[in-house]
Amino acid sequence: MIQSDPFAQIGFNARRRTGGGLMAPFVWLGGLIATALALTVGAVLAVLTAAAVAVIALIAGVVVFFAGFAFRARRARAAKAHRDEGVIDAQKVGDTWVAYGWEREGR
After folding, report:
1. Residue whose C-alpha is closest to residue 37's, from 29, 25, 48
2. What pTM was computed for the model?
3. Which of 11, 40, 49, 89 has the CB geometry, 3.0–4.6 Å to 100, for a possible disulfide?
4. Which is higher by pLDDT, 41 or 91?
């Protein structure tokens, strides 16, 4: 019998057959095993992804921690260099202090 409407069998029940033959239980079991395997692989990949994100976050935290130390040391060194700028040597001559090695900016 030829169907006159080719779109008549589109839908959820379009592929359902009565009986299913001798291979139907084996096909169903194969689908069940494939589904379980896919779920297992997906779960393993999700755990590995979560572990990778945790390791990346840990390493980023360590980098930020050491960067804080570096910036603090840089600020301390810059402040010390700024304080020490100017007079290289000063001696008291008579009643006045004489500075050696001091130069004004722009001279």
Report:
1. 29
2. 0.51
3. 89
4. 41
CA–CA distance, 99 with 87 (Å, rounded to integer):
6
Q: Rounded CA gap, 65 and 72, in Å?
A: 11
Q: Are the C-beta atoms of residues 52 and 61 closer than 8 Å to each other?
A: no
Using CA atoms, how far apart are residues 40 and 62, in angstroms rounded to an integer?
Answer: 33
Task: Please give the C-alpha separations between residue 83 and each of 73, 78, 80, 86, 98, in angstroms, as whole numbers.
Answer: 15, 9, 5, 8, 19
Query: What ranges do the domains of the chain cover?
Result: 24-81
3-class state of residue 92 by DSSP: strand
Residues 100/88, Cβ–Cβ less than 8 Å:
yes
Measured CA to CA, the distance from residue 82 to residue 84 in angstroms comes to: 6
Kindly state the helix (H) or strand (E) to which residue 100 belongs, with its residue range.
Answer: strand 96-100
Higher pLDDT among residues 36 and 16, named by residue: 36
